[in-house]
Amino acid sequence: MATRPVGKAHRQNARHESFLRHGNYRYLKLASLMSLAAIVGYFMVDAQPRPNGGSLIGYTLGVIAALLIMWLALLGVRKRAISQGNWKLKGWTSAHVYLGLSLIIIATLHTGFQFGWNVHTLAYALMMAVIISGLFGIYYYVTIPEEMSQNRAESSQADMLGELADIDRQLEEVAQPLSQPFVGWIQSAVTKTKITGGLMTRLSGQVKRDATARALAKIREAISTAPSPLDEQLEDVASLLERKSVMLERARLHIRYKTLLELWLYFHVPLTFALLAALSAHIISVFFYW
Ligand code: HEM
Ligand code: HEM
What we know:
Layout: H1 8-44, H2 56-82, H3 90-111, H4 119-152, H5 157-175, H6 182-191, H7 199-204, H8 211-225, H9 231-289
Helix pairs in contact: 1-3, 1-4, 2-3, 2-9, 3-4, 4-9, 5-6, 5-9, 6-8, 8-9
The chain binds protoporphyrin IX containing FE (2 copies).
């Protein structure tokens, strides 16, 4: 019999997935219904001379699409105003995703499939770009934070830094009775280790020429090549450096995921602003020329 996953990992899984399933797919149903109504409306109404944004159904769909876009854009404001945690606004995120996707149908039918090199099509293209970037966002939100919380293993970023500082203090203590070159290696692991660096380093999750890894390699080499009365102390140093390496790896992975999410927002949000600008231009221009 298959066993149900239990415990914290399962709960976290459920929490991360559930915005897509929120309220028994309430917003998927609503979005499907709206899209269906748009399709039925589009084919029932015999717009003359051909379907376009200016017919009654075209106009209705355009207004609905524009209201939806403004509402979707408000998510950011609302999110910042209400809560720090992403998942408190599960219902909103669920509605955001499904109603956002329904725009593909509603706004496309509004255009009557009339595209050209103009501000109207620019607004449409930007809308599609926001939606496509949204799909990438879903991928990240569903996969990454789950790994991130597993990776974090109960400890927040502040805890990780605290733990690293604690290991550094212990390293300085065990280094005291030792002489050169050991003290030098340990000092460099304490003072020269970089947790992360520029954008590429953050994204890679790895740091080149890591001072802790280098110190660990040197100490291990010293232990294995020349047995000495210091070996016991050096073993203590090595195990502290190993703990530090594990913590560093975790912190770097955490930073990597956070950076990926931030990078995604750099697309989704500015594209939204560009869309709002192009949409305003579209609406104003049709009122002048239509
Ligand atoms: C208040 C909302 C809206 C109004 C009043 C509106 C109005 C119109 C009108 C009157 C037309 C026909 C223009 C013509 O035949 O020359 C049109 C076409 C079009 N609309 Fe909208 N619209 C709205 C929202 C939107 C939205 C949200 C999008 C997509 C993001 C959009 C994209 C387009 C496109 C691509 C066309 C076809 C342009 C063409 O014929 O070359 N509109 N709209
Ligand atoms: C034209 C349609 C859309 C607009 C204008 C829009 C706009 C926005 C804005 C302004 C935010 C807030 C970002 C922030 O500052 O935290 C946001 C978040 C988000 N959007 Fe969209 N979006 C649209 C469509 C979509 C679609 C179709 C998807 C998914 C398929 C999507 C997925 C997301 C996700 C996952 C978030 C983060 C939610 C959270 O942190 O709770 N968006 N969107």
